[in-house]
Amino acid sequence: MRFPRPVLLLALTAPGPMLAAQASAGTELWRLAAVTLPIPPALATGAAAAFWNPAQRTADAGQLGLDLVQTPQAVGASGVIAALELPLRRVGTVGVLYARMGVGDLVRTTDSPDPAGESIPFYAQSAALTWARAAGLTIVGASLTYHDTRFDGVRLDRWTLDAGFVQQIGERIRVAAATRGFRRVGNDPAQDVYAGMQYRLWRGTLWREAPGTLVARFGLTFGHPGGADQQLGAGLDVGAPLSLDVVLAREASYGNAAWRGAAGVRVAIGRYRLSFARDGGVSDLGSAFRVGLEARFN
Fold it and tell me: Quick check: 275 and 265 in contact, CB under 8 A?
């Protein structure tokens, strides 16, 4: 995890335009949530995954997704992503999404470390309208998002239009790309651009005739200053009910390269899918966790 609380606060108080710094700090909060993804963000799937890539597979029934994120106590941030998707004939899948990530225990002090007065609000939240449509082996999607970031008495809001796509190439390869918080071509600390590729290494039978599929994944995150972050991972599907995912990421943003790992498990039970993921933690800060629930309507 690259950005503990002191760095987030520094981003807000460093010299330079305050509003630009605040937009960047809000994006850093969501990068804290992204460390719990056990796959490259561009390849994430599910209703709540529309936050990372709006190009999700067109559903034949409505579905609801909910992700809860908790970072280590040293960081003190937590968040939620909630999404509802509904299929519309000849239009595709449309949805609404709400996400919020915040630090909950910032307090004012004077000349001693003891709290003085009320707490300091620091959060980033967004609400979005999403759309996705499949055409053959291609899925395209878009997200119109309202962003609201607040630190103490300073507040910034903005609109962005993001896009994503997923392309299946033959039976083995899937490629994807998406933007999040996109503002301009080039580097901007308040935006991320994702790209990813998945390659099927093996498909066969596991124990007791259970079908299995093993895939390798590679991802990039760029569009922000410092350099591209890289993700290398793998996934194993054990039939329909169980999936295991791992990723090793090298984060190079802002000149401080760091390695981290994350792992997750997904379990399907009828029309419900439960997921749990955690990152390995860096710099002795502890691990961040994510718990997810996805439900498909009849």
Answer: yes
Q: For residue 79, give both structure tokens.
A: 């968040």
- Helix%, strand%, coil% for the chain, nearest 5: 15, 55, 35
Tokens for 255, please give them: 């000149």
Q: What are phi and psi of 200, to 5 degrees?
A: -80, 115
Using alpha carbons, list the distances in angstroms from residue 179 to 20, 93, 137, 164, 171. 19, 19, 20, 7, 26
Report the alpha-carbon distance of residue 79 to residue 124 in Å, rounded.
9
pLDDT for 14 beyond 60: no
Phi-psi domain of 196 (left: phi exceeds 0; alpha: psi -120 through 50; beta: other):
beta
Handedness of CA 2, 288, 238, 139 (dihedral sign): negative
Query: CB neighbours (10 Å) of residue 209?
Result: 7
For each of the domains in the chain, give its residue range(s) and CATH number, in order of start.
5-296 (2.40.160)
Q: What one-character-per-residue DSSP string does 46-114 give?
A: SSGGGGT-S-PPPPSS-EEEEEEEE--TTT-EEEEEEEEEEEETTTEEEEEEEEEEEE---B--SSSSS
CA dist., res. 173 & res. 125, Å (int): 34
DSSP 3-state assignment of 154? strand
- pLDDT tens for 210-228 read 899 999 999 999 998 888 9
Regarding pTM above 0.70, the answer is: yes
User: Could you say which DSSP state residue 119 is in?
Assistant: B
Both structure tokens of 242: 């169980």
Instruction: Look up residue 244 and give its amino acid.
Output: L
Q: In this structure, are residues 91 and 167 in contact, taking their beta carbons and an 8 Å threshold?
A: no
